[in-house]
Design brief:
Length: 393
């Protein structure tokens, strides 16, 4: 066998097992780091420019500094939990609605002396690089050459990509979720446990990830004793953070499901029928009772719900049962909430969307260009709205 044949055989075997040639792995790290860095520099510049150019009724420098503009909405809760814990007086009375992995990941950097905001920005950035690395490899292996960079680019300029930068848990969830699916689809179930647990510890959406991974195992139709044992072990380990969090809540509050109670009490989230949920969202037209930007935001919630349903159907059509189960179960809960709430942000965590887009643009360069033109301004707009302190999902 010639050296070319050997190299080809090694590459094919590497693609099958997930042990890619070093150059591909290095390219994945390089692309992920580069796009994460460039996007942050660009979006930081947009946020700072907005803080100067959109200010009114004052003179001199903006009153809001760089760190404060990123301490918005849920970021405030994550930062406070990281500093003081769940039960301290400084924390919100409904703080348990936020899962602990992201605040815990910030703690070492707080001990090193970083401010809470900078610690949160750093953790979000590092997690984004890890998520991008596995997304790049997943797309490159399963779709083809160039797909990794396209998928990574679409994620980086997703309309709600500001939540990959801000001190939110989306980046950490994606780091775990994409890695878990990457190893699962490479049939390396023994490596699924840790990333699945990271995702579960970051967000309640980890439950839907576990469901999707279980369907992925069934889709592969390989029920050997070893693989079944590995998959079962990994899925159980993936659930452990939820069980640990429940045990903590039971001890601290007397209710292991307190996070659900606080979601209902603090944010009005309760399970209702899908028709009622839609009508509650549709009927939010009263300008006298709702903030102005919420009126448009609720219309966009409906648009995002339709987009999410379209991609779930796309996954079903392609018989991607694991992806469909993950996205469909998550979307199903969102569509049976009191009203549509943060669906555009949740689409960011449904990472198969950018994989499907990377596949669709493989032989359609013009479609790729249109996506860039459409997504980038929306992402920049999201940064401006969020850092200016207005509601953005």
């Amino acid at each position: 066998m010639s050296s070319v044949d050997i190299a080809t055989t090694d590459a094919l075997e590497g693609a099958r097992t997930g042990a890619l040639p070093e150059s591909v792995s290095q390219r994945a790290w390089a692309e992920s780091f580069r796009l994460a860095l460039l996007s942050r520099l660009g979006f930081f510049a947009v946020a700072l420019a907005a803080s100067w150019l959109l200010i009114a009724g004052t003179t001199g420098a903006p009153l809001t500094g760089f760190e404060e503009m990123w301490r918005r909405w849920d970021a405030h809760h994550f930062l406070t939990i990281a500093q003081y814990g769940y039960t301290a007086p400084e924390s919100d009375s409904h703080a348990t609605a936020f899962f602990p992995a992201f605040p815990l990941a910030m703690r070492p950097f707080l001990w090193l002396g970083l401010s809470p905001v900078l610690a949160g920005l750093f953790v979000a950035g590092a997690a984004s690089v890890v998520a991008g690395f596995f997304l790049f490899r997943l797309a490159e292996e399963e779709i083809g050459e160039g797909a990794g960079r396209r998928a990574l680019l679409y994620l980086t300029i997703f309309p709600t990509a500001v939540f990959l930068i801000a001190p939110y848990s989306e980046s950490l969830f994606l780091a775990g979720a994409i890695a878990a699916f990457y190893y699962a689809r490479r049939h390396r179930w023994h490596l699924v446990a840790v990333p699945a647990a990271v995702a579960m510890g970051a967000r309640a959406a980890g439950l839907f990830l576990i469901f999707g991974l279980a369907l992925e195992f069934l889709r592969q139709r390989n029920f050997s004793v070893e693989r079944t044992a590995n998959a079962a072990f990994s899925l159980i380990v993936g659930l452990l953070p939820l069980l640990a969090y429940g045990a903590f809540l039971a001890r601290a509050t007397g209710d292991p499901f307190k996070f659900l109670v606080h979601q209902r009490e603090g944010w009005g989230r309760a399970f209702v029928g899908p028709v009622q949920s839609f009508m509650n969202t549709w009927n939010t037209w009263d300008v006298s009772t709702h903030p102005t930007n919420w009126l448009l935001a609720w219309r966009l919630e409906i648009v995002a719900a339709l987009v999410g349903l379209a991609f779930v159907l796309w996954a079903l059509w392609r018989r991607e049962w694991g992806f469909a189960g993950f996205m469909g179960s998550l979307l199903g809960v969102l569509l049976t909430s009191s009203w549509y709430y943060s669906i555009p942000r949740m689409l960011l965590t449904m990472f198969p969307i950018v994989l499907f887009l990377a596949d669709a643009t493989s032989k359609r360069p013009r479609l790729h260009e249109w996506l860039i033109v459409g997504l980038a301004p929306l992402a920049a707009l999201g940064v401006v709205v969020f850092t200016q302190g207005h509601w953005f999902y």
